[in-house]
Design brief:
Layout lengths: L15 H20 L9 H24 L4 H17 L6 H6 L1 H11 L14 H12 L8 H6 L6 H13 L8 E6 L13 E7 L9 E8 L10 E9 L5 E12 L5 E5 L33 H11 L5 E2 L25 H5 L1 H4 L14 H9 L11 H16 L8 H6 L5
Parallel strand pairs: 5-7
Antiparallel strand pairs: 1-2, 2-3, 3-4, 4-5, 5-6
Helix pairs in contact: 1-3, 2-3, 3-5
The chain binds heme C (HEC) (2 copies).
One heme C (HEC) binds next to α11 and α12.
Length: about 425
């Protein structure tokens, strides 16, 4: 079924052990570099320019590798650590003239490196502990989704209809604007953090209430495959707190269910259970994500709900992430307006940023996920409202990626131009 693209396990991005190993590597590198090979820091402006150019090229080359091939992620991680260490040792971000000359580059390396710091698996400005502490009121799972009968019903594919009838009974008592929206589907993009090969989901949208200051919560349960004897542990929430104007702050949390021998099922934060966490923003640049399910995986009577849910998604323009991350520090995204674009699909490519930009759906910028982006473009869903033939989609996709990561000195791509501060 999944012929178009390989699906990715979300859990493989940043396991706890990986973060630990990385922290150790940084320490060891730091020790060895400072004591044995001192870094040669560029001194003159000319040297600094050359240094930045060389390092931007190296970083983007590795980033593109990691975007295209999962096994190249480690090489990218090492490159980023090396660069961020060198900048620290040369005290570049303390040097006003350097920061003034390369403001985008200095901040970029800092925010990209956040997820490499110990205790920062989510990649936010604060540690995961502080993030979950401060945002817990937004991301708690509503009580009615944690009752023993509901948790038992969502445990198996075979009893999913029971779970849905519990939701339908709840809806009978809720006012029209409070009604839950729910459907089950199969993801075309990724497995769950506890099972790389589990694609089935039950999504429940719990409407918020601005007057009562309640965020809207999109709660998603991983559901085992039919006949499977192994329950899925993960359930996640993305919640949206509407801010002033059109902005909406989005908060994230993964939970794990624990199935006990005596039949009880408990729910606790995945991070709190020591099961690691992920950089949600890598894929969730638009805050919530629309649901673009595997073809044929939604039953006929729930298709309208998918549409309604996606319509709701589109009312949340201007995604923000509280004070925890400012995605504009990652620069412009795929398909941004540029003057030196060539090729047949230039106008289409450029059009992504008409909608995917900081005051729209959020820029699609690095770090990002090739399965998600490839699927929306090559699967024909993007650019929104256009119909392209299969071959054109593949070509457009390739061009978008080239145009974003290109490091050619004469024709730098979107990211390089911006990092060197030469954009616009
Ligand atoms: C590798 C990409 C990726 C990462 C990383 C990721 N997600 Fe998602 N997530 C998706 C996609 C794609 C969807 C849309 C449904 C689908 O296609 O599977 C989604 C949907 C969701 C949903 C359903 C609501 C919605 O937005 O549609 C929740 C809840 C969710 N993710 C939680 C999280 C949390 C919490 C994290 C971080 C701990 C996270 N995700 C990290 C790709 C990702
Ligand atoms: C006219 C506005 C518009 C344009 C232009 C557009 N998109 Fe989208 N994009 C949307 C909307 C609306 C959604 C959510 C719609 C849905 O699938 O239900 C979306 C969703 C997406 C998503 C999944 C959500 C996310 O934020 O990750 C990706 C990836 C994406 N678009 C990529 C692209 C790319 C790449 C281009 C350029 C080739 C593009 N889009 C052009 C409006 C647009």
């Amino acid at each position: 079924m999944k012929i178009l693209l390989l699906s990715v396990p979300r859990s493989m991005f940043h396991s706890k052990s990986k973060a630990l190993i990385r922290a150790l590597t940084i320490t060891i590198t730091a020790l060895s570099v400072s004591s044995v090979f001192a870094v040669t820091c560029p001194k003159t402006v000319v040297q600094k320019d050359a240094w930045v150019l060389k390092n931007v090229n190296q970083l983007l080359l590795k980033a593109r590798g990691a975007y295209e091939e999962e096994k190249l992620e480690k090489a990218y991680d090492r490159e980023l650590d090396r660069l961020s260490l060198a900048m620290k040792q040369c005290r570049m971000s303390e040097e006003a003239s350097f920061v003034e000359r390369y403001p985008n580059f200095v901040e970029y390396v800092r925010v990209l490196s956040l997820e490499h710091q110990p205790g920062h698996e989510l990649g936010f400005e604060v540690t995961d502990r502080i993030y979950f502490e401060e945002t817990k009121e937004h991301v708690t799972i509503p009580e009615f989704l944690l009752t023993p009968s509901f948790l038992r019903a969502v445990k198996w594919h075979e009893t999913l209809d029971q779970a849905k009838s519990i939701l339908s009974e709840l809806n009978a008592t809720r006012s029209p604007e409070d009604k839950l929206l729910y459907f089950s589907y199969e993801s075309r993009h990724l497995g769950t953090p506890d099972n790389d090969f589990s694609y089935r989901r039950l999504l429940i949208v719990v409407p918020g209430n601005v007057a009562r200051n309640e965020p809207e919560k999109w709660v998603q349960f991983g559901i085992p495959d039919p006949k499977s004897k192994v329950p899925i542990r993960n359930l996640s929430v993305v919640s949206v707190v509407r801010g002033p104007g059109e902005t909406a702050n989005t908060y994230f949390k993964d939970y794990f269910r624990t199935y006990r021998r005596n039949g009880t099922i408990t729910v606790k934060g995945r991070w709190e259970l020591g099961q690691g966490d992920d950089n949600c923003l890598k894929c969730h640049k638009s805050g919530l994500l629309p649901i673009f399910p595997e073809d044929g995986s939604v039953s006929a009577n729930e298709k309208a709900v998918v549409e309604e849910v996606n319509k709701r998604f589109s009312t949340y323009v201007t995604p923000r992430f509280g004070k925890y991350f400012d995605t504009s520090k990652l620069g412009p995204g795929l398909g941004s307006n540029r003057t030196n674009v060539n090729g047949n699909h230039a106008s289409l490519a450029m059009s992504c940023a008409a909608c995917h930009q900081p005051n729209g759906l959020g820029s699609l910028n690095w770090p990002m996920d090739s399965v998600l982006i490839g699927s929306f473009v090559q699967g024909g869903r993007m650019p929104f409202g256009t119909t392209l033939r299969g071959a054109e989609r593949v070509e457009l996709y390739q061009q978008l990626i080239d145009d974003y990561f290109a490091i050619d000195d004469k024709h730098p791509g979107i990211l390089k131009s911006w990092l060197l501060g030469r954009s616009q």
